[in-house]
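Lecture 7, part B: from sequences to assemblies.

Below are the input chains for today's worked example.
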Amino acid sequence: MTMTRRSFIKGMGGVLSLSLVQLSWKSGGLAHGAASPTPFRYSQISYDSFEDVYRKQWTWDSVSKGTHFVNCFYQRGCNWNVFVKNGIVWREEQVGAYDQVDPKIPDYNPRGCQKGACYSERMYDESRLRYPLKRVGERGGGQWKRVSWDEALNDIADKMIDVMVSSDGPGSIMWEEGAVTGGGAGMAMARTCLVLDTPVLDWNTEAGDHRPGMGATLGKMTFCSSMDDVFHSDLILIWGGNPIYTQIPNAHFITEARYNGAKVITIAPDYSASSIHADQWIPVKVGCDAALGLSMAHVMIEEGIYNRKFVQEQTDLPLLVRSDNGRFLRQIDMQADGAEDLFYLYDSIGKQVVLAPQTTLALGKLDPALEGEFEVDSRSGKLKVTPVFARLRAHLKQYVPEQAVKLCGTDPDTIRGLARTLARARAAFCLPQSNLSKYYHAIGMERAQLLCFALAGQMGKKGAGYMGFAYLSVDSVDGLAVATGQQEPKLALAALGLKMGPLIQQYMAKGYTFEMTIDELSRNYYGHGAGQSSMLWLYHQVGMADTYGRSAEWDPSMKRPLDSFMQEAVAKGWQFKRTHRPRIFIEAGGNVLRRFRSYDKVAEKLLPMLDLLVTIDWRMSNTALNSDYVLPAAAWYEKDDITWVTPLSPFSQVITRAVEPLAEAKPDWEFYCLLLKTIQRRASERGIKEFKDRHGLTRPFDVYDEFTFGGRYTEKNAEEFLDLVLQFSTNVGGVDWKKIKEKGFQRFSSIGNSAGTVGNATDIKEHETITAGLWHTEKKMPWPTLTRRMQFCIDHPFYEEQGEVLPVHKDPPRIGGNYPLQMTGGHTRWSIHASWRDQKYMQRLNRGQPLVHIGVEDAAARHIKDGDKVRLYNDINSVELMAKVVPSIRPGQVTVYHAWEPFMAKGRKTQVTLTPSPINPLQLVGGYFHIQPRFAEFTPGPSDRATRVELEKIH
Amino acid sequence: MKQTARAAPIGAAPSAPAIASYLYGLFGECFGYPDEELVLAVQSGDLRRTLDQQLSTLDPALTAGLDLSGLSDQAADLETLAVEYTRLFDANDRGTACSLNGGLHFGSQMKVMEEAVRFYDYFELTLTEGNKELPDHLSTQLNFLHFLSYAEADLQRSGESPLAYQRARRDFIARQPGRWLPSMAEKLAALNAAPFFHLLSVLLVRLLKHEQSRLECLHGAASLEPVTNYCFSGL
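Predicted structure of the full complex, as structure tokens:
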């Protein structure tokens, strides 16, 4: 008999019954003589004391390979063994099986950090979501009830269908994936958005990882060498990043490089963890790195120690600009049918103005002048022109070290010494990470750094370079994400290729490089609305213009309000303004109500607009807390997938289904399949056959059939899909799923054909470290910019209006009000974003609660002692934290490290609520060849660094 | 997933282990997610009567001084009970407010789970395939106690020695739920849990204490050497 709850409750009426529910016989048979190979007999067991149960040796049922599908970014990509018994992951251990790339170079073993080492416990702790939950009562009230997956999916699907067939259409359903982008099955969201024609938030710029100064200068943000390449360096500048603190698995390469003779210099306002391990620490005022960089550039030029050949060949500095307006001399200035993107230089040998080569960086016999003024006969008469270099030289005179010290606080002799060291280094490498890109004047700061490295010729050679956005992934996911139709993937991809063919031919006819062609395809796709810039969505659709648009209040260089720039940018098609009002928001990988700057104001505005907010996650986040449905996702040891990584650790890593998902959790691939299956079924049941997409085209509701390539790759065969991903990828050496699942990783064999990775512009060789940019320096492939060179002159109207055609320093604006302290931040050592912020072991390693670091002098002046409760405030908001008084923070600075969950803070308010994050108008620039919106780049970013605050003790 | 059951007559006067086995099963069900059956039992008063009767039969002190009215409610409804259960045990504003997993109340969860698995394994049991809960979950541990008590009653009935099961139950209670359930009951009180869940936890704590006391009278005190004194076997 089978006992039911009711029979237990009613009592057994004198019947002794055994009901095994959570437990069952190991043999699988029944007790006492029931049909079973090994019937259990109670009397055969002896037991004296609890030690008896410890006598048997502990053994593992299986050991699987795994990693963590979380956005560790620069340090990500670690191979772990995952130990399993009884369907439970008990521990993980670093594998240490990476092959040595070059016997003379240190290897990658082992990789991992303390967060990864406790994930097996994290996935079973209090935060873990186990059952689908439906909100009861007010949003954010913390009251729920369990529902079945079917109930949840039916309701969500019905609401989505309602919106899709309404006048709002699918554009009102917004998805958010955080950093789950790419990977294998992880690209399911992109494919879901394809078949539903729903937009996904393009969050990278809003997060501040978009490297806008790099984009303006190099035409791309993705540009990264392997971390072992620093072993070739003799100078390492830690300038912006804090790798000893935040790149745990990579930091050893820096130390090893020191043993190989490299000098390490840390440039930072605070005496950071990375400063401790440096040969020299160079302090700089908060947000004033541009002044330091431009002063160094001045020294290199004036002392003639810059790399002339590199400057002539790789940069726009020899290109001629008009003396009358400071703009490039373009071919169209010279002839009526001239091009907008052909430029001139003055050849010192031929003593004439000639067109600069556009399809190669090779100069041949040309010797471009860097100085002088020349006259040309233009369509409008005689024009005086001069090389950018000459203008730059004059421009940089304002940054003579004795003046620069007043701006950046760095001693003039130190500036000169640093400039000389950089210029004379055999191979210098810069680790800025994505810190400076979160400043209001990020563009100027990054341009100044790049100028130094370009003048010194420290790009595109072994051990030299500037670490940009780090990204590397199996390249077939791009195509598989956007291949339409229900045919088998090979045919779908072929059809996609045919569709793109004419465009590719058109770009090739223009002389575009392979990289530029992929970039242009990416821009083209983006323009059709696949992605939607978070900041612009928040500004336009959510109503955050009253916060993010306050730039002119604090930026003295603005002569008009930000909204005026915004309207102009939208009117001219430089940036996209979508019009769909938000009705459904589905969070599947990120945590926007922690991450959005001023998330409290976003919540106030956004939540009332939404018919439905759904979060799928493995833990209770602040976004989940405010959701209508919370769906339990499988943990990273409970599903199969291929993660995206970075060139720093150039190994494609896998996560594998070591155990079945806990309780009712589901892998995200399965979630997407089931949701689309439910949408398709419910539409059919409701007699709804079609919907209109955002372009007004009618589409059938066969969304599941299309997503699954006609039912070929469904919720039931995720592993076969991953095998397909590898089969179609060109850059992982032909490995298949079975093999990579067993090994756990595979070194990339090339950067591949992906828009996200092509910017690395280099070949990957089996026995060599990876050096970004060799296509440019060795193969002379043009940079993907308007001028096809590293471009330091941006003659865009907004740059002109803001006085930033050439790189400049501007003091950080007083964002948040006229307060004496500048608040900085950075990734924490004790969590990856918020995923471990409330994990008990990590909390024991730090103070475990929202914390502000303050220097000794500032603390004393405010009578604040270590451990005091303090109020951090400005004109925007006020939050309560604990003070940590440290000698490493300079006067005038406070630091709050990253990613406290709001529910860990009083009133659910963290320091993020103090940051109005005004948009710099330069980040609205578009219509300038390489400066145009595309995924993850060239849309506005945040500006939370150096927000002004004050601190007071709470008595 | 009710997997395996066996029923046999035990006579008009059930033995203490038989009652205990039944009660462990019943408490296990009561700490499961509420459903219509449970609500009916609450509405009708069956649950209260059954618990009162069975616990009092074991020892009248188990219910002494307690107002058990919170276990019955004619107006009980599934939604209210389910929402309260979820608030307490599933998800709150910081995840689970009061976990039903013992390792999250006492000691290292991995070590607590390891020892539980060792107990199950010793008695040739394993976690049911597709089981939704971990080895330190209250429902899993109550299922094990239900099994041990059942075995004791069964062996007693057939005139065989129940020693192994008595000692194992004594140790398992002392080292596992007996250690952490009081802490869980305190948390429920702090969370202003509905009387239904609070009472259940108080009654279960009493039952475990009663059982432990009875078994220690028979076989001496259980060793409380902490699980953490034993190196995690996985390391």
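Note for the exam: The beta strands of chain B are 4-9, 125-127. Keep this in mind when comparing with the next example.
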